């Protein structure tokens, strides 16, 4: 399959590399050249501008947020360059409103849009073991399933409207942020009684909360291992805000989301912008004087 790929960050580069390994023809564009050059050595074609994706059957984007995606794909001409009938496969975490806007824009230009955000960090992406959360017409999802099979261990289909996949990803990230916050507050509580976070979280993640999210983030919190970031504090704040927006548009109250937002702002105010979002756990400890 002729695949275009835009966004070669920590997640995007290993995903594009896996597509090359699987035998797909991959053309790439990235703002910085180093990741693109690394893929060129493995068989990728590098485009100088986003407007050169004139032969891609599928365009995959893995960009940081709504604004970056709009600027690169729409304003810099990537979407308009695609041949009629091509598929824009957005695998990034973006807002529900942006998803609906881009689905309409793609359709108006004779293209098709699929939302397929992913669960997993960089090492999971490199291993091709992502969980892919997607929504769109069944026949369209069937067309790109071979791509999903390369990139992920399982594809989860949530309906025929792309906004459904966007909402699921925001809800999932909200739950992860909530788990981090709960572990941080609980660790601060036991820390006030001279129990280490390592002992406390080691017990919990081996018993009541023996699940991947708690075990992985619990270990990071116990070891204060927040750099290099797999997912930054700034991105965590973005996703909580997007969840709030999605909830407000449907009159869904999410009281805890406000707590998370304020604690992210606290962390950013203390200079923690580039730390992993697991460092949200430090807010409670700092407020309690630990």
TrEMBL record:
Stretches assigned to the 6-phosphogluconate dehydrogenase NADP-binding domain: 2-155
Enzyme Commission code(s) on record: 1.1.1.291
Cited Pfam families: NAD_binding_11, NAD_binding_2
BP-aspect Gene Ontology terms: organic acid catabolic process
Record GO terms (molecular function): 2-hydroxymethylglutarate dehydrogenase activity; NAD binding; NADP binding
Domain of life per record: Bacteria
SUPFAM superfamilies referenced in this protein's UniProt entry, alphabetically: 6-phosphogluconate dehydrogenase C-terminal domain-like, NAD(P)-binding Rossmann-fold domains
UniProt-listed Gene3D superfamilies: N-(1-d-carboxylethyl)-l-norvaline Dehydrogenase, domain 2, NAD(P)-binding Rossmann-like Domain
Active-site positions on this chain: 169
Domain 3-hydroxyisobutyrate dehydrogenase-like NAD-binding: 165-282
Lipid metabolism listed as a keyword: no
UniProt KW keywords: NAD, Oxidoreductase
Catalytic EC class: oxidoreductase
Keyword Membrane tagged: no
Identification of the protein by name: 2-(Hydroxymethyl)glutarate dehydrogenase
Species, as recorded: Cedecea lapagei
């Amino acid at each position: 399959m002729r695949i275009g790929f835009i966004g070669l960050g920590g997640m995007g580069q290993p995903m594009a590399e896996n597509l090359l390994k699987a035998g797909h023809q991959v053309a790439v564009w990235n703002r910085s050249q180093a990741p693109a050059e690394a893929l060129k050595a493995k068989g990728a074609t590098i485009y100088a501008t986003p407007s050169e994706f004139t032969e891609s059957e599928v365009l995959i984007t893995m960009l940081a947020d709504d604004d970056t995606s709009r600027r690169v794909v729409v304003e810099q001409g990537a979407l308009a360059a695609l041949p009629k009938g091509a598929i824009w496969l957005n695998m990034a975490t973006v807002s529900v409103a942006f998803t609906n806007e881009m689905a309409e824009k793609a359709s108006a230009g004779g293209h098709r849009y699929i939302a397929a955000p992913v669960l997993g960090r960089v090492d999971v992406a490199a291993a091709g073991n992502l969980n892919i959360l997607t929504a769109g017409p069944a026949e369209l999802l069937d067309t790109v399933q071979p791509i999903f099979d390369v990139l992920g261990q399982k594809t989860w289909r949530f309906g025929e409207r792309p906004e459904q996949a966007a909402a699921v990803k925001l809800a999932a990230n909200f739950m992860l942020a909530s788990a981090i916050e709960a572990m941080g507050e609980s660790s601060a509580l036991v820390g006030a009684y001279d129990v280490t976070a390592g002992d406390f979280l080691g017990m919990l993640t081996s018993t009541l909360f023996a699940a991947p999210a708690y075990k992985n983030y619990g270990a990071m919190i116990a070891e204060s291992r927040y750099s290099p970031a797999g997912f930054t504090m700034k991105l965590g704040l973005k996703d909580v805000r997007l969840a709030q927006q999605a909830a407000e548009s449907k009159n869904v109250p999410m009281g805890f989301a406000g707590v998370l937002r304020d604690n992210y702002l606290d962390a950013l105010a203390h200079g923690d912008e580039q730390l992993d979002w697991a460092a949200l756990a430090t807010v409670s400890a700092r407020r309690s004087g630990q």
